[in-house]
Amino acid sequence: MSTTIELVLNLDTVPYHIREGIEQYIRVGRPVGSFLTAVICNDLKIAVMKADDFNLPRLDDIVRFFYNQAPHACWGSKTIMDEWIKIRGWEGYSKTIKVHRISETPIRVESP
Question: Using CA of residue 13, residue 16, residue 17, residue 19, what is the dihedral sign?
């Protein structure tokens, strides 16, 4: 019997027009555009250069989202991003997590 690990993301702090891209990257490892790639790879210089007029003033909120809410295994370097895409995001990653069963209730992974 397998344990379900549900990932709960609160995307309210990031600009609306990039929420779907972030969510799909995290959940299923869908590649993102150059700006989010730079953010995910922790490349501030490129993130600033690639940011549009909506994302640049919100860059701190976007970085805070990844730092505080995104699984740490999905961001921080190009190597990490490439591996996350390869394993198909949380969908693949959650299958590698070993959980000690306590009950039949799905486990929810939430940010603070």
Answer: positive
Q: How many domains does the chain fold into?
A: 1
Residue where the block lists tokens 């590649």: 31
20 pLDDT above the threshold of 70: yes
Tell me the per-residue pLDDT of 50-72, one tens digit each, with 9 for 90 and over: 999 999 999 999 999 999 999 99
> For residue 26, what are the domain limits?
5-109
What's the whole-model pTM score?
0.84
Q: Which two tokens stand for residue 36?
A: 């989010």
Question: At 6, which helix (H) or strand (E)?
Answer: strand 5-7
21 SS3 class = helix
Tokens 């590698």 — which residue? 96
